[in-house]
Amino acid sequence: MGLGFMIGVFGVLILSHAAYSTIQYRGLLKIMEEEFSGPPMNVVLELLLGFFFCIWAALTVPGNFLSIHPESEENRIVSLSANLDFMIFNHRAKVFPLEIDMKLKH
Amino acid sequence: MAGHGDSSSSQKKSSEVMNDVPTFSAENLQNNMKVIYYSRTFMSIIGGVIAGILGFTGFMGFIFYFLVMAVTSIGLIAKSKFSVHSYFDSWNRIILDGFMGGLMSFVLFWTFAYDIVHIF
Predict the structure, then answer these.
(1) What is the DSSP letter of B25?
(2) Where are the domains of chain A?
(3) Could you tell me which of A67, A86, A69, A85 has the C-alpha nearest to residue B11?
(4) Cα–Cα distances in Å, from A12 out to A62, A73, B114?
(5) Nearest-CA residue of chain B relative to A24?
């Protein structure tokens, strides 16, 4: 999860660098008074690279798919939500010795 | 055994599965839908930024959006290891879900990036 997030941030950084390069390229075109037909090739390559990093992050960061079949391996254990009706406190732990450290309060 | 008032997972006993409609764990299905939604939204935003940087206007931009969504769908199908039916109940979910909501995000970031790069 951490690695995927870093790759996503890296992809966004690459995209913003490509945006900055395009802004500079347009400034250059304004000076030379030419039309903007498309960003230069290295910007296109940079956009493609950033796109692939972001796709990789988009597919790995949100989480895994969980199987929806009730009889698949990972769904075997039935889990009840924490419901107060099922909690009991009258169990055997009361025979354990108490582990409170008695500190005198000043 | 799962209680009746338990709404977090709907699982039936295996003896009832044989002569019943195929049942599935709704909680896991919801989790899968959430994963798809996050993935598609993020890719719509990234696609919008790229379309703005490349300078697409008009129809070309929407073509690009469909392209990005198709690539995302293929990526999601590959993520589910090509056995879609063990994670979803129908094909429509993994292909079409989040399409229209993503379109709004795409157009927003497309105009945003286009303005930043080409106009200001």
Answers:
(1) -
(2) 14-60
(3) A69
(4) 16, 37, 16
(5) B117
Which residues in chain B have their CB less than 8 angstroms from residue A71's CB? 14, 17
pLDDT at B25: 74
Residue B6 pLDDT: 42
Q: Tell me the two tokens of residue A32.
A: 């030379």
The pLDDT score that the predictor gives to residue A96 is: 85
Query: In whole angstroms, what is the distance from residue B79 CA to residue A46 CA?
Result: 25
The percent of residues in chain A predicted with pLDDT above 90, rounded, is: 27
Domain range summary for chain B, segments of one domain joined by +: 25-119
CB contact under 8 A, A65 and B79: yes
| Distances B96 to A40, B32, B72, B101 between C-alpha atoms, Å | 34, 14, 11, 11
Distance, in Å, from the CA atom of B43 to the CA atom of B65, rounded to the nearest integer, reads 10
Please give the ipTM for the structure prediction. 0.74
Confidence band for A75, pLDDT divided at 50, 70 and 90: low
Q: List the Cα angle A40/A41/A47 in 5-degree steps.
A: 95
